[in-house]
Amino acid sequence: MMEMIWAKDGDPRYFSSRCGSSLWPLPSPYLTGRFFNAILPTSMVQIVREFVVREEARGPFELAFGPGGLWSRLFARSIGFQGITLLRDTKNPRRYLMVESWGTEAQREQALAEQQEEYAQLEAALAKWTESRAEWGVFRMLAQAAVRPLR
Predict the structure, then answer these.
(1) Mapped to the 3 state alphabet, what secondary structure does the chain carry?
(2) Strands of the 4-8 sheet, one edge to the other
(3) Residue 109 or 32, more confident
């Protein structure tokens, strides 16, 4: 059995089951059904960039730009930084997508301005390690979903 639970106006304290139309307080999302499937609205933005990395630079690139690397440590102390995800293409292991998560675009811009010197150093290293790079854009997350079995 799968039951969908929706947050009301971004407030996870109120949920509606797909079986009924009324919104009612739910003390714990784990009390309904066999699975908990939450879809929670969020205002987070994600910056998506693509890189094609030189074969000999894959290791240093992954260390610097993966989670816990120089890039995420640079912004870890910045307001609004939510983290980084580094994805490697399964068919072309030299192609990566990097997804930065921020509270708002303005917070990212502020962090870039505050960390301008260190950011420039990382960008210089990145230029040496990559054959091509492109910023795909800034995306707003409309909803975040998770499916977890209930115990």
Answers:
(1) CCCEEEEECCEEEEEEECCCCCCEECCCHHHCCCEEEEEECCCCEEEEEEEEECHHHHHHHHHHHCCCCHHHHHHCCCCCEEEEEEEECCCCCCEEEEEEEECCHHHHHHHHHHCHHHHHHHHHHHHHHEEEEEEEEEEECCCEEEEEECC
(2) 24-25, 11-17, 4-8, 35-40, 144-149
(3) 109
Residue-wise pLDDT tens digits, 97-151: 999 999 999 999 999 999 999 989 888 888 899 999 888 988 887 766 666 666 6
What is the per-residue pLDDT for 149? 64
Domains of the chain: 4-41 (no CATH), 45-140 (3.30.70.100)
**R_g (Cα) of the chain, nearest Å:** 20
How are strands ordered across the β-sheet holding 95-102? 81-88, 95-102, 45-53, 130-140
Place of tokens 């714990």: 28
